[in-house]
Amino acid sequence: MERVDTPLAEPAGAAEERVTALFRRHRLALLRLAVLLVGDEPTAEDVVQDAFMGLHRRWAGLEDEGKALAYARASVVNGSRSVLRRRSVARRFGIAHEPPIWSAESEAILGEDRRRVMEALRRLPRRRREVLVLRFYAGLGDAEIAEALGIAPVTVRTTAARGLTALARLLGNEE
Known about the structure:
Keywords: DNA-binding, Sigma factor, Transcription, Transcription regulation. Belongs to the sigma-70 factor family. ECF subfamily. This is SigE family RNA polymerase sigma factor. It holds the Pfam family Sigma70_r2. It comes from Actinomadura yumaensis. The chain is mainly alpha-helical. The protein folds into two domains: about 90 residues, no CATH class; about 60 residues, Arc Repressor Mutant, subunit A, CATH 1.10.10.10. The chain contains eight helices and no strands. Helix 1 runs antiparallel to helix 2, helix 1 packs across helix 3 and helix 7 crosses helix 8. The longest helix is centred in the N-terminal third of the chain and has 25 residues. It starts with 13 loop residues before the first helix and ends with a helix.
């Protein structure tokens, strides 16, 4: 009899069930993260969906299921970077990205101060924006941010400090 050293395969539906459960629990937080990074909800929805599709494809290769959320979060950040890179290339060829037109209802809900912060946040360099969004909107700690962005925790702290200084300057709150 031939000996097989590979682990037994999961039942066919197990990966779908686990990824679906993770999606239901965390999709809104990941969607908010993507919206803050790319600037519009339809694109953010695509980024989040792609992240979960990638997670599903790679589920069998995950060494630790506990890191599935970190994988999805990193995929959302990387997918958002790809979108922004494509927009940048398009701009070089004279094709400008048209930001979404906010409805009157959403304008009324979103206060003027918050809107100013969001506009200033979009003007920050990519890494600063990502660190601030992950820290203050996603509520992640330095180690989690470092893992999601592939940088050292000390870089997270430095980038956050510089990002906050730049954000204050953009908002005219520098003392």
